[in-house]
Structure formats: C-alpha cells, structure tokens
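Figure 3 (text version): structure tokens given as input.
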C-alpha cells in the first residue's frame, strides 16, 4: 500500500458557518439577485436565504478584510491581508474572478469602494502611509496613488454626486480628495468649533457637497464641503460602525446594538434596538448594515447576520451564526447523527446540524474550551477547558453531569473509549488521566510517560490500549485503564486502532512536508473505509491523502479557504462530510466528500464546478515519483543567469569612483582613436538553453539570436544585419504574426524586452520594470497587439503586455520551477498556456492578474516535464511535448490523449495550417497530420544528407533539435550544437549557420597570412573558420579535453593547441591531424605562442604559474620560466625571439629570457623601446589607460595591437570591445566602445592585414568579425552599438554658466514643503456669498475658470476680506529656459516666477495668475495642437505636474 500518488476522490466546500464581524465593517450587502454577499476567513460567500444555499469565491489565499459591491450589484470586490495582498473583483452569480489588482499595496487592504458608474475602484492599504489607490479595475491598471494618512483609515467613499471626488475618514481625521489627471489631492476636514476633533468610523455622501459621518462617541457629523456644519448628537449611545445610503435614506449601526433609519435629510425615521429583541443579548454590537427596500441586513461583532423586515422590526430573523472572537480549537462529531460540536475561547459550545446547515444548540461555559469528545452512545459531551478542568454535559439538553479539575494546565485532548467505559483526558502538564464513565467519572488511572504536553490520542478497538502524541513528537503506548507504558514491540504489533487522529507514526509518515516543524500539522483524521485521511495545518490548508500514508513526499489534494491555522478536522460519523475549524478565523467549514466513482460522472457534466469550487487541482506536493529529468534538461535547469555585476550597475560603480575620476580629469588624456570597427558577421546560434528562437521573416531572411545580438541573415547573399539594442545575453525570441517584427528578451538586473523591425533594424518598443534577472520566454498574440513574457526570477513571473503602449496589462507568479514556453491562445488573447518543469498551466486574464489552472491529467498519467507547446485548430485544443518523448493532447484543461513522438524529449513544436511539425533530442524532424494520429514524414539530421552548399560541417549525426520553423518551402532547424540547418522537403539539408556548442570559448588565433582563424573551446572542439566573404567553418576536430588557447606557427602550417588538462598538441593546420603532443603540467594551459621568424621555440603558459619553452624541431622542453606568483594570463615574444613578456593574474608584468627562461628586470622606459612581435598584454605603462575606473585585475581580459601599432583593441568582463590609441599612457584613456558580446569578451585578435578584428565571447560561445574602418569612412552607423562614443563624463569642459546650473541642487529645498505644512483652504478658493455690487453682469462670454483671477482694475473699493495677488515683479531666468510664450495671437504673454504662473496682457499691462503650485515652478510649455488652445503645463520641484487651462478672455474686463 505504499502508494505515493494523490487520492482520486476529493472534497468540495459545501457550507461555511459564521461571518467576519470583528475588526471589519460595511461588509454585508444584498446582490441584484437578492442574495447576500459577505466573507469569512479567506472565502467570499454568496448566500441565498430563499434556497438556504451558499456559493463560494476561493480566489484569495489569506483573510479577506474588506468588501465593496459594484453599483449594478452583481460584481463584488474583496481585499485581503498578507505581505503582497491583492484585490479580487468577482462575479456573484458565477463566483469566477473578473479581475485581480495587485503589486501596489502591502500588509493588507483596509477599505474598498466603487464609483457611481462602477468603472473605477478605490482601495486603502494597511501600510504605514495608508496608501490610497484608484484603479481602472477592468484593465487592472493603477490610475492614481497617494499617501492616505499617518493613522488608520476606516472608510472611504466616492462622492456619488460630484465626479472625481472622494472622502476618507479614520483616526481623528476626515479628508476630502480630488482626483485630477493622475494626482489625488486631499484637503483635511475642518472641525472648527462645531464639534470635537475625534475618530470618524464611517461615512456616506449626499447631494450638494454634504457628507454625513459617524463618530466614535455616537454623534453624526454633517459636513458641507470641507467644513463641519452641524452635529447630530447622541444618534447612537456609542461608536457608529456602519452607515449605508440607499434611495430611501440612510441606515446607521452602532456599538450600542441599535440600527437607526434616517430620511434623505438625516431626520430620524425609526430605531431598532437589537438587544431588546428575542434574539438579542447584552453586548450585541452592530458592525455592518445594509438597507434595501423593506429589508435591512445587520452584521454583528459576534459573527451573526440578522435580517429585519421593516414592518416587523422587533422580530429580526437570524440568518447566520458563528463563534465570536477568540481561537477555536474544540471539535467533535456525533457517533450516530450528522452533528458537529465545537467549542471556543469565546466560552461557548455549539452544536451544528450538518444536514440543515444550522446551529441547533448553544451553551455558555465559565471557561474557554480547548477540546471536545462525544461518548460512543452519543449521550455525553465532554469539554476540556483552558484552566485544566473538564466538564461533561448531556447532549440532549446541555445540562451538566460533572465538572472535575485535577490539572492546572489546559486540557488539549480527550477521548471516550470505544466500549464507552472510559474517558482519557490529556493535559498540557504532560499526563493523561483515565476516568471511569460508569463510576460517575471517578479517576481510575494515569499515564505519565510524556515529557511534553499531550497533543493527540487514540484508543484501540478493544479499549485495552491508548496511543498518545506529545509536543516533542514522541508517540507512546499505554495499557488501559491503569496507564502502564507498553514498550514491547511484539505486544504492539497486532493492535487495531478504533480511530487515527495522531500526527506521528508509521501510518502518517508521508503527510509531513520537507523542513516542517513537529507542530505544523495540527490535526489528522483517517477514514478507514475510504482509505483516505484528511489533515489540517498551520498554513490554512486542508489536505486529503491516501491512508495509510507510509512514504515520505506523498502527494495530496489541497483545499484553501481557512486563513491562518486550521486547528482541527474530523470526518462525520458516516464519512459523508469533513468538518474543519479555523483557529484565528474561528469559522467552521463543512466539506462534502466526493468518492472516486462520483468524480468520474462529475467530470463529464461540469468540470468547472467540481474543480474550481474546491481548488483541488492544486494537488501536487514534492513530486519525487515523477521520472528523473533527461540529462540535457537537468543541465539546462542548473544554468544560472545571475551576474555579480550587470551593465546597469556601471553608472553606480562609476559614481563610487568619483575621487579617482576627479584626479584623472585634471590630467591631459589622449583622444579616442579616429578609426572604428563595425560588426560584420557573427558565427553562432544560441541553441543549448533556448528553444523556438529561429524564424523566417516576411522577406525570406532568417532571424535568430546569439550573445547580445539579434541577427537577420540573408541566406542568398550570406550576409547578416544586426539588432544591437541589447546589452546582455538574449534568451528568447518570438516573431510577430506578420513576420516583420521580432521580440527579444535578455538577461539583466531589470531585464528588458525589445520589439524591433527586421527590415529597418530599429526598435519599436522596449519593455522594462517587471522581470528580474532575465526573460526566458516571449510570445505574440495572434492579432500582434499583445505580448506575453516569462521571467527567470524565483517565481518565474508571467507578464502580459500591450507592447505598443509599453503597458503591463497583467502579471502573476508562474511557478517555482523553470518555465520554458509561454503561448497566447490565437483565438482568445486573454488566455495563455505555460509549460515547464512538471508544469502545464492554463491561464486566463483577470484585470491586472492571471488566473491559472493546472492541466488535469486524470487517469492518463502523471505530470511530466513539458518542453514545448502550441495551440491547435480550435480555441480549446492545445498540444504539448514532454521530456519523455510524448505529445500530450489537451481539450480545455483536460488531457485527452498522449502520442509517442520521439525518443527523448520533444524540444520544439510548430503548428501548420494542416498539421504539426515536431523536433526532439533524437535529432529527428517529424511531420504530423492535424490530429497527431499519423506521422506523415520524418527527416533525420545526418551528415550524409548535407547538401554541397553548406556553410560548415555537422559535428555529429542526429543533434538535439531545439527550434523548428516552416516557410518558403523549407523547414528551418536549430540544434543544441549551435547549428542552423535548412531542410528541403525532398530531403537534402543545408547548413547555414554554425558556432561553438555550450562551454566557454577562449582560444583564438588568426593565420599569419590568410583570412583564416582558429578557435578552441570548452566544448572540446578545435575549429578553423574562413573569414573571407564565404564565412564558413572549414574544419573541425574533436579533442579529448576542452582547450583555452591556440596559435598558428609563423609559416601558418602548424597549429598549437593548449588543453585544460595541462597537455598541448601541435596539429597540421590544414588537416588538423596530430604532429606532436606533450603533457608536463596538470593545470589548464592558458596561453601558447610560437616564437617569431622561423618559429623555432614554443612558449606554453599554464595556470600553475610556469611558462615552459620547447624546441619545436627537437620536441624537447629547453627552459622553464619561474617566478610568477599567480596563473599566467598573457604572453608576447619580442621580434628577435629572445625575450618573453608575461602577464599574471596577480597583475605582474614579468620578463624572461628565451630559451632558458631566466627572469629579467627591465625598466618601463626600456620596455617601450623593445620591438615586440605581437602585443596582447594588458599591463605596463603603454596600456595603463585601458583599465576602466572600476577596473579590477581580471576586468580587461584581452588586447591586441594593430600591425601599425596605432590602435589597441581590448575585450573585457563587461562584454565591451573597445578601441584605444596606442600607447594608452595615463589612467582612464578615452576610447570607442561596442556592445555585441554578452558578458566576457575572452579574446580579441586582428587579422594579418588588420582588415578585420575577430573577437570571441566566453559563455556566449560566439565568434564575431568586425570590419576595421579608417577615419573619415562613415557608413550608416546602425551597427555601432552605443554610437561608439566616449563616456560622457569623460568629455570635460562646460561653459561656466552651464557648470553652475548643472550643480544646482533642488532636493534640499524640496523637503521644506513638508516641514511647513499648509492647513485650511487658499483664500481664493473659499466659498463666499457674493455681495450685490460684485455679482458678475450677465454675459454671453465663456465663464472664467474658477482657478484664474483677473486683477480688479478700477473696481469699487470694498472692505478687505482677504488678500488677492495683484502684481508680481520678476521672471525665473537663472536656471530655466524656453519658459516664455505668446498666447491668443500675441495678445498675452505667459511665463512663471516663484510658484506662480503669470498671464500678462500686453495691451493693458495687467496680470492674471495660476496659483495651484506650492513650490518653485521650474518649467513651462504650451500645447501647440489646435484642438487644445491655451492649455499650459507647468512643473514644480516636488514631483507634481499641473495642467492649467486658460480660456479665451480679455484681461481687465469689467
């Protein structure tokens, strides 16, 4: 029975008892269907009082604490607590998610409110600033965000009579908000002398800027605008928790247990005192009211929901009850009836009917209750108390039988023996007492073997033994009733247990997750008949396992709903239901058990209902029985794309080196060289860890990527064009449905996705800000408007974009394990699939989130690792390729069939108009019909099939296929080995592109007189490349070990290769056959060099700090250069072949005499005079300038000097290729810089005639050829990444005015706005009754905007009521520019000074002012569009932009 699979039966949530009244308010409403919506724990509940039926929304994973109803009363928004809380908007009919709003709030969401037309939603967070956010909830888009208040906000509401106005209230404040553009501005309510400043708990908005609010002292405060105008005193005797507005008026509910109804002018209509009704009790406190027609809903602090019919107001109807605040631990089920008993810290014991879903009895005790048990005959109910006593009640009438206190600490577990004679009572002082039931509960035994508190107990079927678990995780056995401990294993062998509720023991080994604490699982209950058991844990999860569960890492089905810990769980007497209780959420959940056979029937009827309802598709634990991963996939999952330093860190690092920079800036430095290089050709294709990254474009060119380069390859002309917008490894590529645009995603700290045009090679959009570390998969939607991407962060975040706008539409955490592919449904762009390690998930967009469901495998197998996926011919059909060579066929989320397609993983799959094509690790391309029933044709990738026009040689037969694409009558294939092949449908294969395989490439040598170069790599190959326009690989040879260096002999006939095991070979440069090989060293050979001239000597440098010198003719070692303190990095001969220059990892520049190897000391001035045969060194005064400001010893990895000794090319660890003038004396020389490699450029070499620079990238495996362009040769520069300029800060020299302005610091002053807070309202905005003589004359002219004043020239003098700005002298010119403009055809001039925008009328000399800014204005612009005449935008210092509208008018009129 050691089956580790999940059970095939499952649970479905049937009923939730309770209502969340504590610490929440305004969370109970009628929907349009007259159902009642509220929440308990992490579940949204829709209850139909007519049918006495509940529906559940299970989209949250922690306590829900806020709820709002859409004005149409169908949709509901709920907000939860948690580290990264989110808001769900869901449909109360279907209980499906409509939208998810996330990534903004922290801690929790305290309040929610929809606006009048239901388009926008406002939310308030529980963070320290109580952030207020306004959302376009359908799009999941944040419209505006502002800090709410320094203290808690309790309620927020839209003003339903004024658009864009909101009101919030909370601890000692009320705020009135205006939403303008994307900025939310608050004004504090002025309490004045009308009422005391106090905490406002709830509010409702009425007409004419009137707001009613309920205060902590029971008064109602009435506001007009932002001023308190009157108070209705003593509306309630204590705090008013809830206020609800409806067509008839307002309803309020308070701590005094009263509900009051008011008319629309807040005149009292009636009072309903719930404490005085039949169901009432002392201390009843109202937390939520909802008035609809003649019905009123009331939610109380103690988890009850009442419904009051207005004309029978003294007879409220109790709809729902639950336990009050305090932890809930005690649970027992009746042995013969469908009843459950619960007891809580609220001191009540309650009996629930599982059939009627109702509370049938309740009894209040003296002490908090911690456990319960029902006797086998169902007559007695025993309750264990927190104070160490226990009480026995008669179930029939809840009268006390006996109350006994033998212990001081809490009783945590008690159980009746199966024969009904004994009661075992386990307490927190480590002992179990046995009482005789018949002897009126006289103590008859004691078990004292435990050293910790007793947590669980079970009796044997014959009532002769008891097993216990304690807090230390020990399992002990006792003989009954005396309590003697049993240690003899033989005696224990045959015991049958009457129940199994213990958490430790062989039978429950598999329930424990990895790294769990012994107290993480709170409760277990086994169903012996159904061979399943249910567990309850500290993470709010109820799980269903097989029983017995012997093997570690067993799979389960899991059910969410409870928020924090689930404290207890039990099967009902007939195993029809499971009852679970939540500790802190003090709710009781009743789950229906759906056995295996019923599940099968259900699947065909309503898969939706049976699965979504209970979340049971989340049923995977530690999946150790999934087959081992294929070696290639295993290797790929272990690749890390994290960098110690990213290119994004460069500016920051430079900032840290400010001092160094200043000292260097004072010295005269060489200019950068006038000549430049341009990327010409790249050998390589990234296949070893990428897939489906190779496509035909519209024009028949081929687009793919390698290193940080997007390549568009023309196969007719054998030329390439490059997209160089990326600055690190590209990991994925997708093509737009029209085949003209491409999306590529790269590695980076804040990694970016570029969408670019394959014709013009210009970027169209760059998407950043959501993926950490890198992007591993991208896909366009069928209409080309959307893009999906997957990150390589720990959660493999999935983001859906509107790429043209650069806008994130939705995001979600994808999976803990790697995701390989994302595909958008071509028929419904709101749906997508992702596949990856043990992962196949179907997603649909919901606002700012994505709702995911795992693929349902059913009886067809287990979740395999999926490597590729495509959608089929209808919106429901999807196909995925597995790591075992199968193709899975899915309908909706169900697996309907699997087909064996390849030996080994299916890495790539492509959908055709009629059929599919797949490629696998077995090196076979297979064409299939449109149902995957028949394989129409297969093509094996073999050397024998290679066509004559190929640009290289296949390294091996049947290479692993990573990408497939079709078009132009051919199949395009990309392999793991870095080859791109074109398969003609008739069979011949042409090799188009080739590069090294996975592994770092370090070795590079150019031929002394031919356009040829050699490379050697960790992939254990030595390759010869043709650098002439044919651009192909001429020869390849496999080596026994990887290599790090190579060198041609001066005559070009021999080639020396240094290997990683300390050996080296000399091979024939044409045939690559061995001439000679040696091994004197154990460590990597890092550099190898023939002496110039006849090539008599060969210097071989190794990582164990030595250089060996060999005589080539006699094949003997003739000298050893000793004295280096670190590994050798670079080596050069002088022209005579008598002197060696050596660089080491410790930044030493050493000189040795050849051939003996004697160390020499040469002054630096002399070094410059020596004629060197080559210069590849990175140390010495001649190349001091090549080290960047942030340079460390290994930062510059390679250099090479042109034969005219004028330009030095370098490669560094940042992936930059740079050109310096030579000699590069003085620190931090100026340079030209080029990006195409991703991280390390490991080697650079000029060809014999300096026409090309050849560079190799370490891990990016690419070989790049750059053409060398003389000064004055200026082609189109699209290939100069970075426009190859100097670093700007090294440019030097500003004009003095510019320098001064550049150094002005605005930040310090910006803080002063917070130091001097502004209260009240600006005088010009205050409401005043105009006097007769100041009323404006009737006029047809447009009314003047309220925010603009004209100065009153020639008006009657009147008493000064406030100050009005009349004239401003000055204009801000010292640090601003382009900030004076004509308006109204030159009649007015607009400019700014201080914090005022000024409109100056040229004719009258009068000024008008815009005064909404509260700090210096720094910039101003006028909208030139004819549609927006006279719109001006001004920007101030403290992050706020206002837009002011100057309507057409004449200044100084009237």
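Below: residues designed for each position.
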């Amino acid at each position: 029975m050691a089956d580790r699979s999940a059970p095939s039966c499952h649970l479905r949530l049937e009923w939730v008892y309770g209502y969340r009244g504590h610490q929440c308010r305004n969370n109970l409403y009628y929907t349009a269907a007259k159902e009642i919506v509220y929440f308990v724990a992490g579940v949204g509940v829709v209850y139909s009082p007519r049918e006495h039926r509940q529906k559940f929304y299970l989209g949250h994973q922690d306590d829900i604490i806020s709820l709002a109803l859409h004005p149409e009363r169908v949709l509901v928004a709920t907000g939860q607590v948690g580290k990264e809380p989110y808001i769900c908007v869901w449909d109360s009919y279907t209980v499906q998610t409509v939208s998810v709003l996330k990534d903004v709030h922290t801690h929790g969401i305290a309040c929610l409110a929809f606006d009048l037309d239901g388009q926008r939603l406002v939310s308030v967070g529980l963070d320290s600033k109580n952030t207020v956010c306004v959302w376009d909830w359908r799009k999941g888009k944040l419209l505006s965000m502002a800090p709410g208040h320094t203290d808690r906000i309790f309620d927020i509401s839209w003003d339903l009579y004024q658009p864009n106005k909101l009101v919030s209230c909370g601890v000692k404040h009320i705020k009135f908000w205006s939403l303008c553009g994307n900025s939310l501005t608050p004004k504090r309510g002025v309490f004045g002398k009308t009422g005391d400043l106090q905490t406002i708990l709830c509010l409702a908005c009425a007409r004419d800027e009137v707001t009613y609010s309920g205060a902590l002292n029971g008064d109602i405060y009435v506001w007009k605008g932002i001023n308190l105008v009157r108070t209705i005193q003593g509306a309630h005797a204590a705090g008013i928790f809830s206020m609800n507005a409806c067509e008839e008026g307002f309803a309020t509910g308070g701590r005094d247990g009263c509900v009051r109804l008011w008319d629309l002018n807040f005149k009292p209509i009636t009072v309903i005192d719930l404490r005085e009704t039949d169901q009432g009790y002392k201390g009843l406190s109202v937390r939520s009211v909802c008035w609809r027609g003649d019905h009123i809903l009331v939610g109380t602090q103690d988890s009850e929901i009442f419904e009051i019919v207005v004309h029978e107001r003294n007879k409220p109807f109790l709809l729902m009850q639950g336990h009050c605040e305090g932890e809930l631990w005690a649970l027992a089920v009746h042995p013969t009836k469908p009843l459950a008993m619960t007891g809580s810290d609220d001191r009540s014991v309650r009996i629930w009917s599982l059939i009627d879903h109702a509370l049938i009895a309740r009894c209040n005790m003296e002490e908090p209750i911690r456990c319960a048990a029902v006797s086998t005959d169902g007559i007695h109910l025993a309750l264990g108390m927190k104070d160490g006593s226990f009480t026995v009640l008669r179930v029939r009438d809840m009268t006390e039988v006996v109350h006994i206190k033998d212990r001081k600490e809490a009783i945590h577990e008690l159980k009746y023996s199966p024969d009904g004679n004994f009661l075992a009572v386990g307490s927190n002082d480590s002992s179990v007492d046995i009482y005789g039931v018949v002897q009126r509960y006289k103590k008859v035994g004691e078990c004292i073997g435990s050293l910790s508190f007793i947590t669980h107990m079970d009796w044997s079927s014959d009532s002769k033994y008891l097993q216990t678990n304690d807090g230390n995780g020990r399992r002990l056995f006792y003989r009954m009733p005396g309590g003697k401990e049993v240690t003899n294993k033989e005696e224990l062998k045959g015991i049958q247990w009457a129940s199994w509720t213990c958490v430790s023991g062989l039978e429950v080994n598999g329930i424990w997750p990895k790294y769990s604490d012994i107290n993480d699982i709170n409760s277990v209950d086994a169903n012996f008949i159904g061979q399943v058991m249910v567990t309850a844990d500290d993470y709010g999860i109820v799980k269903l396992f097989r029983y017995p569960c012997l093997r570690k890492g067993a799979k389960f089905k899991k059910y969410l709903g409870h928020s924090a810990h689930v404290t207890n769980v039990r099967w009902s007497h007939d195993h029809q239901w499971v009852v679970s209780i939540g500790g802190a959420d003090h709710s009781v959940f009743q789950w229906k058990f759906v056995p295996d056979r019923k599940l099968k029937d259900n699947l065909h009827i309503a898969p939706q209902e049976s699965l979504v309802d209970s979340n049971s598709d989340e049923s995977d634990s530690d999946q150790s029985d999934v087959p081992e991963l294929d070696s290639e996939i295993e290797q790929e999952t272990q690749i890390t794309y994290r960098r110690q330093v990213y290119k994004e860190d460069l500016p920051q690092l430079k900032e840290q080196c400010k001092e160094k920079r200043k000292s260097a800036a004072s010295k005269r430095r060489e200019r950068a060289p006038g000549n430049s290089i341009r990327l010409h050709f790249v050998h390589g294709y990234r296949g070893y860890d990428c897939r489906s990254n190779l496509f035909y474009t519209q024009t028949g060119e081929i687009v793919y990527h390698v290193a940080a380069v997007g390549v568009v390859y023309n196969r007719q002309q054998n030329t390439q064009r490059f997209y160089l917008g990326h600055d690190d490894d590209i990991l994925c590529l997708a093509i737009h449905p029209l085949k003209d645009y491409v999306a590529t995603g790269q590695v980076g700290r804040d990694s970016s996705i570029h969408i670019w045009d394959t014709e013009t090679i210009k970027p169209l959009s760059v998407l950043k800000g959501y993926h950490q570390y890198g992007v591993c998969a991208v896909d366009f939607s069928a209409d080309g408007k959307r893009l999906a991407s997957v990150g390589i962060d720990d959660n493999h975040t999935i983001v859906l974009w509107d790429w043209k706008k650069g806008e994130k539409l939705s995001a979600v955490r994808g999976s803990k394990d790697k995701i390989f592919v994302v595909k958008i449904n071509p028929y419904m762009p709101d749906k997508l699939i992702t596949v990856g390690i043990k992962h196949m998930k179907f997603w649909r967009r919901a606002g700012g989130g994505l709702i995911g469901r795992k693929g349902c495998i059913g009886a067809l197998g287990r979740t395999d690792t999926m490597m590729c996926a495509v959608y089929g011919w209808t919106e429901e059909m999807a196909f995925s390729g597995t790591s075992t060579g199968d193709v899975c066929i899915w309908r909706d989320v169900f697996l309907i069939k699997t087909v064996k397609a390849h030996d080994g993983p299916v890495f790539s799959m492509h959908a055709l108009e009629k059929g599919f094509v797949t490629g696998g690790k077995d090196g076979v391309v297979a064409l299939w019909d449109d149902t995957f029933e028949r394989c129409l044709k297969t093509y094996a990738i073999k050397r024998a099939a290679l066509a004559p026009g190929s640009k290289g040689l296949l390294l091996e037969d049947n290479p692993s296929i990573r990408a497939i694409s079709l078009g132009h009558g051919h199949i395009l294939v990309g392999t793991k080995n870095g080859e791109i092949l074109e398969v003609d449908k008739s069979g011949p294969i042409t090799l188009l592109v080739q590069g090294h395989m996975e592994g770092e490439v370090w070795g590079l040598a150019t031929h002394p007189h031919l356009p040829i170069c050699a490379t050697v790599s960790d992939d254990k190959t030595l390759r010869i490349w043709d650098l002439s326009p044919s651009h192909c690989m001429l020869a390849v040879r496999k080596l026994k070990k990887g290599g790090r260096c190579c060198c041609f002999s001066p005559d070009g006939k021999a080639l020396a290769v240094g290997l990683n095991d300390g050996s080296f070979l000399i091979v024939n440069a044409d045939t690559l056959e061995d001439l000679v090989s040696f091994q004197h060293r154990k460590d990597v050979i890092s550099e190898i060099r023939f002496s110039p001239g006849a090539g008599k000597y060969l210097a071989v440098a190794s990582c164990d700090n030595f250089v060996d010198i060999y005589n080539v003719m006699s094949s003997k070692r003739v000298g050893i250069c000793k004295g280096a303190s670190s590994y050798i990095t670079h080596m050069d001969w002088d022209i005579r072949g008598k002197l060696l220059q050596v660089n080491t990892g410790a930044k030493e520049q050493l000189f040795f005499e050849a051939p003996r190897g004697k160390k020499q000391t040469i002054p630096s001035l002399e070094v410059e005079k020596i004629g060197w045969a080559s210069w590849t060194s990175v140390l010495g005064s001649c190349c001091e300038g090549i080290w960047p400001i942030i340079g460390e010893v290994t930062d510059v990895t390679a250099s090479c000097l042109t034969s005219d000794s004028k330009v030095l090319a370098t490669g560094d660890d940042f992936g930059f290729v740079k050109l310096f003038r030579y000699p590069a004396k003085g620190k931090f020389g100026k340079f030209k810089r080029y990006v195409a490699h991703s991280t390390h450029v490991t080697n650079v070499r000029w060809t014999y005639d300096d026409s090309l620079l050849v560079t190799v990238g370490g891990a990016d495996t690419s070989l790049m050829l750059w053409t060398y362009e003389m000064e004055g040769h200026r082609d189109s520069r699209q290939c100069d990444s970075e426009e190859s300029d100097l670093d700007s800060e090294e440019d030097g020299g500003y004009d003095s005015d510019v320098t001064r302005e550049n150094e002005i610091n605005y930040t310090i002053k910006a803080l002063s706005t917070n130091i001097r807070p502004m209260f009240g309202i600006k005088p010009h905005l205050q409401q005043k009754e105009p006097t007769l003589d100041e009323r404006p004359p009737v006029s047809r002219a447009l009314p003047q905007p309220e925010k603009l004043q004209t100065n009153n020239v020639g008006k009657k003098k009147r008493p000064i009521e406030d100050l009005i700005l009349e004239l401003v002298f000055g204009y801000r010119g010292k640090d601003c520019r382009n900030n004076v403009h004509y308006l109204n055809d030159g009649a007015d001039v607009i400019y700014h000074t201080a914090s005022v925008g000024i409109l100056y009328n040229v004719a009258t000399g009068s000024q008008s002012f815009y005064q909404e800014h509260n700090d210096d204005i720094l910039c101003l612009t006028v909208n030139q569009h004819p549609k927006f005449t006279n719109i001006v935008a001004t920007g101030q210092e403290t992050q706020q932009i206002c837009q002011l509208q100057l309507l057409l008018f004449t200044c100084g009129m009237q």
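The longest helix spans residues 596-605.
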